[in-house]
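In keeping with the milestone schedule agreed at the kick-off meeting, the structural modelling team has produced records for the first pair of proteins. Each record is given below as a sequence line and a structure-token line. The laboratory manager (R.T.) confirmed that both were archived under the project's standard naming scheme.
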Amino acid sequence: MYQIFTSILDKNRKLKFLLSFLFSFLWATSIQAQNISAVEKMAAKGYAKRFSDTVGCLKIQQQALQLAIKNKSKEDEIISYAYMAMTQRRLLHLKDFLHYADTAYFLAQKVKNIRAKAHAAAAMGSLKSYIDDKPQALNYLLDSYKLFSKINAHDQCAKIASDISYLFSPASPTKVEKYAREALNHAEKSGDPESQMYARLAFGSFLTDNIETEGIKEWEATLKFFQETVSLAEKNEAKIVSKSNIGIAYINLADLYTKGPQPINEKAFLQNLEKATIIAKKYNVKIIYRSAIGLKGFYYTQKGDYIKAELLFIDGIKYQKSLPYTDNYLLATFYDCLKDVSVKRRDFEAYYGYDTLFTKYNQLKYKESTQSILQNADARYESSKKMERIKQLELENELEQQNKLLGYGIAGVLLIGLVFMFRSYHYRQRYYQNREDFLQQEQANSELKMQLMEKETIENLSARLSLERRLLRSQMDPHFIFNALGNIQSMILQKDTVPAVSYLNKFAKLTRQVLEQSRKETISLEEEINTLKNYIELQQLRLNNGFDYVIECADEVEKDILIPPLLIQPFVENAVEHGLKPQENHIRGLIEIYFELDENGSNLICTIKDNGIGLAASRKLKINDTHESLSTTITDERLAKMKKENPNAGFKVLERDTITDGHGCIVILNIPIL
């Protein structure tokens, strides 16, 4: 739970997403006087009202756009569209955001003004970041950063460099530091408190990431940096437009105390959370208020003051329900926290009530997540489609230009003389006609390419969603669910409350893990091992603890490596169902799982052994067995797709040597490391 409420603090978790999602791309509200038109000043003034007065913000920006059109200034029109795009992001209107950003970028290709091009590239970068197209987001933001640097727009450079720093995390720590330091440098030159706060938050995030590796000295330096940041925010509160950044500074500082020497400075920790709460209530910044409540609640839970923790979480739920919109993600998180508090208080009746509400909001959260994924996929498709149309229009313009040249050529031939007129006209006409046919053919090819891309995008999306649904269904075998719940029910009826709750927690955690991981491209090896442990322990309960298991990693295997999710569980399921379950009762079952790297270190080799009845005996029993190994089939399909990029991906199933290795089966999985 602590990771959820500190997500606003740690860029390796969810801070960058929340900052990007809630504060958009924080552009300049303090603008350099030189080279800035009255229209841009008006658009920036409207954008500065995006948090406090949404209606006024939109009205002023529309006036700026109309003035630009009236003055026939394409540069000002581009900048107005860029600001309007960023406002629509703040309002979470993806369709309008896409429209305004694409319009600004399309118009920017027709002008030479650096400032207009920089604003348009920044809007496109923000759009790509919003729809989870990280590589394209970096390309556009880097272009914008270079353009703003040429005209010494330090306030803009500070904020764009900060966002670039976030996007490079965690893949490239060197570039994270590079752009965070450049953001600080530009912010200092601008003298704009808004830009300085944004740059200091980005650099503070980089410093926080280094605490675990650098030690106490780095922690003390980071603490001093955040104290200076809070002091800057307090001195310039009126000049900082994004009041949420002030609250984030307080929460960052509070969280930093939890990463330092123990016991923590409780007074300073709570004092900073209280200041964050005051800022949240004063300026109606909801996320700061909720984060402060969550961190306090978790702290009191860890401290053992469960009553205070429960009251804080309940207060957070009441506050959320009082708002005009419902945040299902946050409500599910709060109820999950209340479940943990109930278990620690041993109040199982309350646990049941909280678990019911948690299940409700968790399901709604996943529905919203699925809709968001589909919307982002549609937006990426629409954006790429529009870029292809832009290229098509450029080709049509080239064709039109060639037609003009054709007319000029004919006029030139007529001037040479009547004698050579027919001959010259004939050959030139044929030349330009061939050229026109060639360009028309290129145009037709471009249209065909766009149609094929549309079809391919839709088919790929459909195949991916279909595979996700089949994978999710295959991971949750109905027989396994029924038997696990039956055993838990039996424990409850026998009044074995503590183990019943423990296994119920394991079952709930396994279900949540499968649901979450089935939607991810990659997970860490540690997450995969935790899921396997939950699954196997529930299988042990199902089979009356009739077998043992061992999971070991070689010394060279790091548990934070990334692999495709849910590849190993189907083979463990087969080992239990077809190997151990039919085994004679007097033989104690054993499942052994080992992880090691291949010679090149690019693949993870997973070996699964069981001492069951073996392949030959299992095939004989399968004649009358109704259990279908759908999950193994789907896993085979997934590995087959991976072979396109990694030819070594795959698996093989072998019979154990009964003389040297005993009875049973061995599965060797070759998993690509992503």
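The second protein of the pair:
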Amino acid sequence: MAKDLGDKAGEGRAYGHLGRTYQHIGDYDKAMVYYDRRLCIAQELEDKAGEGAACGNLGTVSQNLRDYMKAIDCHKQQLRIGKEIGDKGMLGRAYSNIGQCFEMLKSLPEALENYQTSVKVFNEMRSLLQSEDQWKIGFRNECNQAYTGLWRVLLKQEKLTEALVAAEEGRAQSLADLIKSQYGLQECQYSGKFLEKENGMLNSTSSSTIFLAVNVFENQVDIWLLSREKPVLHRKRKLDHHRAKNANETLQSLIQFSYENMGVRAKVKCENRSLDALHKQRSVVERSSKTCSQPINQEGNLPLATLYSYVIAPVLDLIDGDEIIIVPDGPLWLAPSAALLNPFFRYLCESFRVRVIPSITSLKMIADCPEYHSGLGALVVGDPDVTKVTNSYGDQLEPLPFARKEAQLIGQILNAVPLTGKLATKCEVLKQISSVAVVHIAAHGRMETGEIALSPNPERKSQIPAEEDYMLAMTDVMNVKLRAKLVVLSCCHSGRGEIKAEGVVGIARAFMGAGARSVLVSLWAIDDEATLEFMKNFYHNLVKGRSSSESLNHAMKCLRESEKFSDVKYWAPFTLIGDDVTLSTNNKKSGPHRETQETDR
């Protein structure tokens, strides 16, 4: 059609689309033909941007064909054009691709120089995005190759600390920006130079910290171990799942296999804290996805043992103390860390307290601002009235009596009046959430993001609530200024989200970015009766003065040793993200007196 119309620009774009399609399906010869045609038309029309893009595409296809010298020539042409027209994005991509070609040719100094220049260009571009969080997340995803290539090459040159600094600088960048903004911190305090200076931030954690990086190029997991006042150590573990395309797919399939073996999606008697009734596919949101009646034996826990061998075993002999902090990467964000199984069939949480952090930088920021988290009292939300939330088929969400019971119990423990039923509106929750030290929400949660369904706002445009009237979305959370030390999201999948180079983008990240010091989440649909027992034990330990990680470990132990809830699926979904907080008696707001009853376990 473009030819018939004499539309040269349209014809060139069509060739570019055909080239990308053939490249995607692995027909690189045809891709090269169509990219060549795209280049010729761009040159004919003196379309410099199109010419630069075509050169870059020809370069990547040459990389696919392992003709690295030709690829370098193509990318250098793209580099020249990018400089000519002042296109920084084109420059960043070209430098990154040249770096990758030199890396494949084992010319490490040249690879390092180009990766460093690419990262520098991308950082300059990123600074222009200012406070646009979603743009930053997308941008970081697009330039991931440069960041990962930089730390890979540094590792190959045996520059262990510099490699860790490079990997850390690429972690949770947008989240760090949100925290800086909330806390009023200066950028220069948390630069790469500070990280590296005398191991600055790298030795700032009091517990052994395992920093994980998924190395797709080498099909392995790279592991750094940080301990206070000790040198940074590095080890690696090759992945041996040959059916997957790369390391990310290997880990994804392994984690999915571990979920299936634990029976987290099998049936059980409990209420369904889910939003799936609102969707025809009935797959989007759950609170409890009923459990399997068959016990999981040692053979069934094989995926958990394999995960242990990949991320813990290589550095086990180097770990000091009784707590491990994990900085996950990629799919490992969704691994049930506490349930990883050692060769003697002991779970990781039986030997160590475990928590995860998005990055070392984010934890350092939180630790540097103890005065920021000055809220008092607790906001406890349970069983919001969502009976008016329907879709076009008239489906309604069910009430959550266990969630209400959970909220009432925790309200007694924390001496707080819970918001339940019609009182738990979105506007009321947002009104109270900024001033409290503890936030606890037991409600329906969305599978993809962990976002939470609350009671619809009474003042709304339509009788039938729109999603913005009741759904506590990530944007809602990030628009408030939290002072909470601890946020507990007792909803299904509250620890989930879209896995990006930034990390897991979901409701838990939103709470961290809004100012929460730590967030307790669930990785999968949680059993209601087990959750009630878990939360009761967790809060009783918390008000006794134990830290959040200690309280978490006690609650897991309580369920693990019980007759009814000993299966992994009951106690393993709970994950603590962020700092290890302790509540003081000042965190209890004055209110109606509640008698707190301890229960023997």
